[in-house]
Amino acid sequence: IRVLDKEKIDAIVSDYQMPGMDGIQFLVEVRKRSMQIPFILFTGRGREEIVIQAINSGADFYLQKGGDPVAQFAELSHKIRQAALRNRTEDLFRKSEEKYRHLIEHADEVIVVEDPRLKEYSILPFASVIEQVIKERRPEIGLFGATTSGRELAPRLGSRLGSGVTADCTILKVGEFIQYSSKTIWSPCLEAIRPTYGESKLATIIGFRCPQMATARPGTFEALKPDLSRQGKTTVFVPRLDSSLFAVEIVNTERKEGGDDGLFTASIIVAGGRPCGEQDDFKLIKDLVTALEEKGISAAWGATRQAVDHGYAPYSRQIGQTGKTVRPKVYIAVAVSGAIQHVSGMKESGRILAINQDRQANIFHSSDYGIVGGYLETLPALIAKVKAGFTFGLKS
Questions:
Q1: What does the pLDDT look like over 278-292, one tens digit per residue?
Q2: Whole-angstrom distance, CA of residue 289 vs CA of residue 287
């Protein structure tokens, strides 16, 4: 106990029977000083009352004596590693509370896995970790973002867990399903709704194996407002990770600007069609975004699939059915024809302004305002207006 007051301890392993003080009394003294230090208690077999007392007094793990000493030593070693790793993870969270505070404001519990080998994403260890969490917690529903990694993780987990996956959903509901033939009611039942037939129809897909799994199209769902009254908790989960899961070595990682975050958070998005690339390689589109940013407005630029396919913009800037779904306050569609595949990715925008020299263009049917004019003539005038103080009704 004197050492405890002076030094940082990763874990404590204590026998129950000790001269002068038993293991429970020692545990109580430890907990008076710290609730964070992991405590493992050894006790004899058939002493269930001691085990219950230990757990109620704050013990993290217990081991009952007897049996194969090699197996028992292996179990003790594993529990010490679990305890030490959990302690370091909890310490990390206490030091960086702001990093996870926003999760607690939306969730009742955040499960944390801390392992230096998981610093960079790799499909095999990440899939194993999530599989272990699901098998222990047995959730009814599992949701993933329809991102590059989410589209890779979800089907692999669905196969391992014997559950189907509904991909690229735009609506998610939880209700009940009545199967009249067998007089059975399934609840809670995930209704995973996704577009089909070129966004002209919506298909509702239901699965009857838990966890019911789906991926959600990025940008489709509006973020919830933080609930500052919520008192969530963090739970540390220590998985078993075999070395074979790390057969693929990540030699180097380079992260370059791709526009993803900007498109999801911008107040104004200026999107260009293929003519913008053909005429000046999107220069005026980018100049308009720059002018808005100089006025303190969060702005980003995007492109149609045709512009991306012809090499005028990277795929990370593509908006539409096969790209990103966005919902800015103002969406400016420049030289965009208005194909249904593109409209599906921006129709939830606050206000839509279309600029096109073809007054019959379909984009005008999806817009709140329209300007009939050429790209090279209209954009310079619009940029001049922004530089003079016009910001489409938004304030910096």
A1: 999 999 999 999 999
A2: 5
